[in-house]
Amino acid sequence: MSDRRPLRFVIVGVLNTAVDFVLLFLLTALGMPVFFANIISTSVAFGFSFFANRSFTFRSGGDARVQIVKFTIVTLVSLWLLQPAVIWAVSAIIGNLFSDEVVLLIGKACATVVSMTWNYLLYARFVFPPAADHTEVME
């Protein structure tokens, strides 16, 4: 038996990204300015991510009001602190070896791995922890 939460987390991440991209491009194709379309698409994707991770990835039955606050904190730290720090660090380390675009691509890829790992670990332990009175079901 194995824990399928990491696989479910990746599935939710792919779907979440698809929701964001499809909605962003649909809204801009309908004439909405990119700034507003992006706010809407990322907000919908954020909501989808919360509910999908809560119900599908971690199968949590905890207090959703507390979880959404924790989810928001973990996610925003990941997006607004970790990712820029990793991008900066990569740029400082390899900035002279490649073009700015390649450095940014490598930095963003590294930042995505770091933030996904951060998110998974904190979602599993802090946002959607297993209930204390039962053993987590391994699939």
Automatic annotation (TrEMBL):
Q: Which residues form the GtrA/DPMS transmembrane domain?
A: 8-128
Q: Does the keyword Mitochondrion apply?
A: no
The UniProt entry's GO biological process terms, in alphabetical order, are: polysaccharide biosynthetic process
Q: Which residues cross the membrane?
A: 7-29, 35-56, 68-90, 102-122
| Cellular localisation | Membrane
| Entry keyword set | Membrane, Transmembrane, Transmembrane helix
The keyword Transmembrane belongs to this UniProt entry's keyword annotation: yes
Look up the domain of life of the source.
Answer: Bacteria
- Record Pfam families: GtrA_DPMS_TM (PF04138)
Gene Ontology CC, one term: plasma membrane
Q: How does it sit in the membrane?
A: Multi-pass membrane protein
Family affiliation: Belongs to the GtrA family.
Q: What is this protein called?
A: GtrA family protein
